[in-house]
Amino acid sequence: MTPQSVGFVQPQRMQFDEPLPLRSGAQLRQYELHYETYGQLNAERSNAILVCHALNASHHVAGVYEGQEKSEGWWDNLIGPGKPLDTNQFFVIGINNLGSCFGSTGPMHANPATGQVYGADFPVVTVQDWVDAQARLLDRLGIGQLAAVLGGSLGGMQALDWSLRYPERMRHCIAIATAPSLSAQNIAFNEVARRAIITDPDFHGGHFYAHGVVPKRGLRVARMIGHITYLSDDVMEQKFGRQMRAAELGYSTQDIEFQIESYLRHQGDKFSEYFDANTYLLITRALDYFDPAREHGGDLSRTFAQARCKYLLASFTTDWRFSPARSREIVKALLDNKLDVSYAEIDAPHGHDAFLLEDPRYHGVLRAYFQRIAGELA
Amino acid sequence: MTPQSVGFVQPQRMQFDEPLPLRSGAQLRQYELHYETYGQLNAERSNAILVCHALNASHHVAGVYEGQEKSEGWWDNLIGPGKPLDTNQFFVIGINNLGSCFGSTGPMHANPATGQVYGADFPVVTVQDWVDAQARLLDRLGIGQLAAVLGGSLGGMQALDWSLRYPERMRHCIAIATAPSLSAQNIAFNEVARRAIITDPDFHGGHFYAHGVVPKRGLRVARMIGHITYLSDDVMEQKFGRQMRAAELGYSTQDIEFQIESYLRHQGDKFSEYFDANTYLLITRALDYFDPAREHGGDLSRTFAQARCKYLLASFTTDWRFSPARSREIVKALLDNKLDVSYAEIDAPHGHDAFLLEDPRYHGVLRAYFQRIAGELA
Fold it and tell me: Inter-chain contact B261–A236, Cβ cutoff 8 Å?
């Protein structure tokens, strides 16, 4: 456990029996949401901060699980007593999204209508559906208005959607390394990853659980592609460059020659051991579909006319997946609506992954912003 | 047939019975090279230009095959009577490289030692091996010194290698949209493509011919990945953006929603119908291995100390596969050696693919340079 950790944490779960209507027209009749909380809700119930997760993450945002080594939450460097998001001041909630493979109802669970595992029949979920489900959880926790919604990447899209559709329920939106929609290139990478999974003979149309197999080949390739896009060209060059595994070339097309190959294969192998193929498809589709301006003729400024909260946007210079230019599109739309917006473009070498790392300038910006929010609580 | 076409062309073949030693330590005992020529060799045998091909190409560089629609060579827009590389002035030779699936000896052919199809047993070939084989073909054609060696991308690497190892056999090296070696990110993309092919159950360790199958799933994914890296983010955005296939969202993870998905799947399908999986592995490995500075402690300037010819380098601003910065590394190394070098950084939107397209500024630069070479012939 690191110093300033929130310590041992335990996931919680909440069952929902009222159906959740989805954007697709389908509905989830019953579902369960897994979540964790850190810090204390104050008497005014005004210090809650919701953290939304990205592709490969969950409700386990901070702290560790007792008896499990290396079980730090995925944003543990940010959240804890005395950390930039200070749990001495804030009540932090991490929620696992519907369709996930980490606890909340998803394709690995049984469909109450049939008693069979959902598999590929789990309904397509969107960022809006996730946000609606999150709002219901907050209702049950008795939290009317959040101090802030915080997220990076796909999590940032959820934070933006919150600010558009639940403007009265939050005071701040903190969206990091995100975009107002995916570009054609972003969708293209998602599509290749999906094709790798779907065309893996072990996928069985998404009903592989019944066959006792897992489409690991496809998951590996999907993760390798993803990983390339999370890192900057520069950081890959610095970390791996053309380093060979052995002193001499092996002249093989199938064996590992370069360290970067070894690294990517390892990432792919690890991922294929724990991630669900149907979840991967669902989450990449949620990314593809996110496009709040679509209902406003593509006009992002008009889209944000309905927003009310204050915003912090941050992006990273070497992020080529969701480049600073995409964050600036959002900042411009917010400014067009005379909204209160702070924006930090952080010169960090790590590409898209930077939003998960502990960069002093980046964490400094977040610390200052959370202190501003804390000041408003007093 | 376009105006200014070289017209109907026919591939030629040449058999070699002296073994070719390869960088790997293996050798090819016998092999055949396929090639095409356009224009006339002059009496002084001084106007020959060799064109080296990249990943997905062949000896069929210009002209058309009689009776075959849409059979234009892959650089037909550049080469012909009155075109930038004017076949009224030059004798142009296109050679298909060893390991290819388009004619020259490769994994689909029989190993003379066993009588069996090579498949995965075809030896690993390098850029240097290709260049050595090309030099032997020129010997047989009676061409001692080339006016120029020309290539783009992997073809540019061959042109550079020619200039380093056969400095007396050429007067000009024209290397377009190339690099002195692959970056970690370049290798990473190659590796993902290879894993997609190798882990396709239909690959059978590279001996799929005997099973009567083709690892099409892997080839499709490999081609889709490649295609993303050939195009710029911008041109993909302009061409496809977030265009939907239908007016309404279909809410499906497996069906096509966006036009970019349709385009990529189509490219992948087409490729898997004609390209050989073992060739794909061999050619991407040749790319990975190319690194002439390796023998010189990574010092590119020292590497080019052995060069003698004149150079034209060209790169494209939106090429993120082989960015202008990589061409500038070469230009700097050439200038460090006080070599005669021209360099054009062309503001074109098409990414890496730009080297195959007809951009007026790009073709203008090439036309001017070939006129300079033609002037030296007089």
Answer: no
Buried/exposed B122-155: b ≥16 CB within 10 Å, e otherwise:
bbbbbbbbbbbbbbebbeebebeebbbbbbbbbb
**In A, which residues are within 8 Å of B322 by CB distance?**
none
d(CA B200, CA B194): 10
ipTM of this predicted complex? 0.95
> Taking CB atoms and an 8 Å cutoff, what residues of chain A touch B201?
201
Most A CBs within 10 Å: which of B124, B253, B269, B320, as the mutation test of the A interface?
Answer: B253
The residue with tokens 């939304």 is: A52
Of B26, B124, B184, the CB nearest to A241: B184
Cβ contacts of residue B257 below 8 Å, gap of 6+?
Answer: A288, A289, B244, B245, B246, B249, B250
DSSP string covering A245-303, please? Answer: SSSS----SSS--BHHHHHHHHHHHHHHHH--HHHHHHHHHHHHH--GGGGGTT-HHHH
- Inter-chain touch B257–A288, beta carbons under 8 Å: yes
Q: What is the pLDDT of residue B3?
A: 80
Residues 6+ apart with CB under 8 A from B93: B35, B36, B37, B48, B49, B50, B51, B137, B138, B141, B143
Query: Closest by alpha carbon to B320, among B184, B229, B191?
Result: B229
pTM (predicted TM-score): 0.96
What is the rounded CA–CA span in Å between residue A266 and residue A198?
21
- State CA B182 to chain mean position distance: 14
Is B237 in contact with A183 (Cβ distance < 8 A)? Answer: yes
Give CA–CA dist B117/B262, Å, rounded. 35
Token duo for residue A30: 């019953």
* Mean pLDDT on B81-105: 98
Q: Do B260 and A188 touch (CB under 8 A)?
A: yes
Question: Which residues from chain A sit within 8 angstroms of residue B217, using beta carbons?
Answer: 199-200
Q: In sequence order, what are the beta bridge partners of B14?
A: B33
**CA-to-CA distance for A197 and A221, rounded, in angstroms?**
8
What's the pLDDT score for residue B2?
Answer: 73
Strand duo A91-95 + A31-38: pairing: antiparallel
CB contacts of B123 in chain A (<8 Å) are 251
Contact B241/A184, CB-based, under 8 Å? yes
pLDDT per residue as tens digits for the range A21-77 = 999 999 999 999 999 999 999 999 999 999 999 999 999 999 999 999 899 999 999
Write the DSSP string, B301-346.
Answer: HHHGGG--SEEEEEEETT-SSS-HHHHHHHHHHHHHTT--EEEEEE
In tens, the pLDDT along A311-322 reads 999 999 999 999
Helices marked H in A97-153 = 127-141
Rounded CA-CA distance B260/B237 in Å is 9
